[in-house]
Amino acid sequence: MVTTLYLIRHGETIGSETERYKGSLNVPMSEQGIGQIKKVSAFIAAKLQHSDTAMRKSYLKDIHTAAPQSSAHEERKLSAIYCSDLDRAVKSAEIIAGPHGLKPLVIPELRERNFGIWEGMTFNEIKDKYPSEFEAWASDPVKYSPVNGESTSEVYDRAIRALDVIVSKHAAESADRKSSDNGGPADNIAIVAHGGVNRIILCHLMGVPLENLFRIEQNNAAINIIEFWERYPVIKLLNGGPVG
Q1: Which of 35, 97, 115, 220 could hold 119 in an S-S bridge, CB 3.0 to 4.6 Å?
Q2: How far is Cα of residue 193 from the mean position of the Cα atoms in its chain?
Q3: Which of 115, 112, 116 is nearest to 158 (CA)?
Q4: What domains are defined for the chain?
Q5: Which run of H or of E encompasses 90?
Q6: Is 204 exposed, middle or buried (0-12, 13-18, 19+ CB in 10 A)?
């Protein structure tokens, strides 16, 4: 059985016209951001109704067993949705969860990186006010931690631990259904997190060193689609979905 993950970044936040490291600050979504996430919700609902894992196997057909096709009349829905505990992620998850009759499950380990004393500052403000610390970060972006903040590697540890728990849970449930007499469809789940956390998760899934974190774009309300096969994850969509 295949578990499909919709990995989503929250919508635009209030004050996004000035790019600042909001990190773990609890900044709410703007009206524009709410509109973006409503489009994401519609996109996912439509995608679920017009996709079937067994028909998307392509080159994987020789190394995996096909998942059973759902009946044509069956309405496909998300089976669970998880989110960071910051308001912008929770609100986004609630909007996406609505059509599926779900309540988001809040996972604090999915919250954005804590930038410590740099939170709320722009890139140039950090560079000007903390030049030596900025240079240390530029020299070692994975291990360096701003004062009172987290390093990228620390965020990696908590975010990937949470991801592994979520995916393992649904893989086990899918396997149980497969072994039953009735079988059943594979799980479709969603995680709503943040730009930094999503980049870390995507680096992990693709085997990309964390030093290359910012080579992956994550727009507001970005959608990434990942299929978890028995042997490895396959990225089906990267930084996609509706915009505006």
Answers
A1: 115
A2: 5
A3: 112
A4: 3-116+151-240 (3.40.50.1240)
A5: helix 87-97
A6: middle
Which residue is it, tokens 């703007």?
30
Per-residue pLDDT for the chain (244 aa), expressed as one digit of tens each?
Answer: 789 999 999 999 999 888 899 999 999 999 999 999 999 999 999 999 876 544 455 555 555 554 445 444 456 899 999 999 999 999 999 999 999 999 999 999 999 999 999 999 999 999 999 999 999 998 999 999 999 999 999 999 999 999 999 999 998 887 777 665 455 567 899 999 999 999 999 999 999 999 999 999 999 999 999 999 876 899 999 999 876 5
Strand partners, 226: 5, 235
Give dist(CA 42, CA 102) in Å, integer.
15
Q: In what order do the strands lie in the sheet with 233-240?
A: 105-106, 80-83, 188-193, 3-9, 223-228, 233-240
CA distance 107 to 86: 10
Q: What is the DSSP letter of 193?
A: E
Residue 225 burial (C-beta neighbours within 10 Å; 0-12, 13-18, 19+):
buried
Residue 83 falls in which region: left (phi positive, over 0), alpha (psi -120 to 50) or beta: beta
Q: Work out whether strand 223-228 and strand 233-240 pair parallel, antiparallel, or are unpaired.
A: antiparallel
Reported pTM: 0.89
Quick one: tokens of 182? 């009735």
Tokens 């998942």 correspond to 67
In the 8-state DSSP scheme, what is residue 29?
A: B
